[in-house]
Specification:
Elements: E1 26-34, E2 40-47, H1 58-75, E3 80-85, E4 91-97, H2 102-118, H3 138-150
Antiparallel strand pairs: 1-2, 2-4, 3-4
The structure holds zinc ion (ZN).
Amino acid sequence: MLDLEKLGWEAGSVGELDHRLLTAPHVKLRSAIAGEHGDVVYSVDLRITRPNTEYLSTTEFHSIEHLLLAGFRKYMLDHFISVAPMGCQTGFYLVLLNEGDAQRICGVYENILNDILAAGEVPYARAQDCGNYRNHDLALAQVVARRVLADRSSWLQVV
Ligand SMILES: [Zn+2]
């Protein structure tokens, strides 16, 4: 049995919660699944906006997705499996292999958001790398990144 509190996740914050109670932005462990050889897959919610209250535009969403993808490849290559948009347009699903430490994940996320503020372009925004390469806007993504960073101290409080 994994000790999720030891990894820095608040008791009661893990798993599926009533979306009406969720605050944002937050970083929340959705699940941790151990395989028979001891490897663990962690699924983490990077919630950006409050559910049923506010949504990212498809352009904001798309550019942030690309920037997060580049960032997790940069900082967590050995653990990073994927980052994918939530269909409700309020956040992203992050999937990691053998890295479930809340502070470490938040530290990398913070680095990535700071990198977004300093970025000169949206990565992989070319027709050969993207399925809708015209639908990007770095400035909009930077506004969102700045907002998420402003609440850094409360990312692990999810309700
Ligand atoms: Zn794309």
